[in-house]
Design brief:
Structural class: alpha+beta
Distance between the termini: 43 Å
Oligomer: single chain
Number of helices: 4
Strand order of the largest sheet: 2-3-9-8-7
Strand content: 15-25%
Number of strands: 9
Length: 184
């Protein structure tokens, strides 16, 4: 009987790993040619396009909390929100543990923003956070955040010399002021 239990647990683990792999593969789907063409028509230059998805990084910026909100603002609302978040996280983590998925962190952030209190990276990230499906379109002379909802919409755009340097292999965007956005 123990062998059957072990086989079931192994099968469940393989299923979970397969689901994680499918989710990862879906997150790196190539951009539609339509979006690339749309971006190229906007700025008249060949553009590369990278899917950012949901932009919810951890902030390592003076004057900002880890979730990006400004320190010292709306303290009472923040107090109750933190209580609610803590209860939700505890319940979900216990549920994930009991469901056999292993311990997780439902409040985990994807990516990191680093820089000074007035970092140039904040403008891009703050613009991309409300997007439903954020994409980074970039070239040697342009960088833009596009929300590829029903109709593409430019949320943020910069040209050289103010455009950041994009490193898709390192999944990093670096600005002239030294601030960095590492996307996941």
């Amino acid at each position: 009987m123990k062998r059957d239990d072990m086989d079931q647990r192994m099968a469940a683990r393989v299923d979970r790993m397969s689901q994680r792999l499918d989710k990862f593969t879906a997150s790196i789907t190539p951009p539609s040619p339509d979006l690339r063409e749309w971006a190229e028509s906007q700025w008249g230059t060949p553009m590369d396009v990278v899917r950012l998805g949901e932009v919810a990084p951890e902030y390592v910026v003076p004057g900002r909390r880890k979730d990006g909100t400004v320190k010292g603002k709306r303290l009472i609302r923040r107090f109750f929100w933190n209580i609610l978040r803590g209860v939700y996280a505890a319940v979900m983590n216990i549920f994930l543990l009991a469901a056999g998925g292993g311990m997780g962190n439902v409040l985990q952030r994807k990516g990191t923003v680093r820089g000074s209190a007035n970092a140039q990276a904040l403008e891009l990230v703050d613009a991309a956070r409300p997007a439903k499906d954020a994409w980074l379109a970039y070239s040697d002379t342009h960088a833009a955040i596009i929300d590829a909802g029903e109709t593409p919409k430019v949320l943020w755009h910069k040209e050289k010399p103010h455009a950041p340097q994009v490193s898709p292999a390192r999944r990093r965007i670096t600005w002239p002021d030294g601030s960095v956005f590492e996307y996941a």
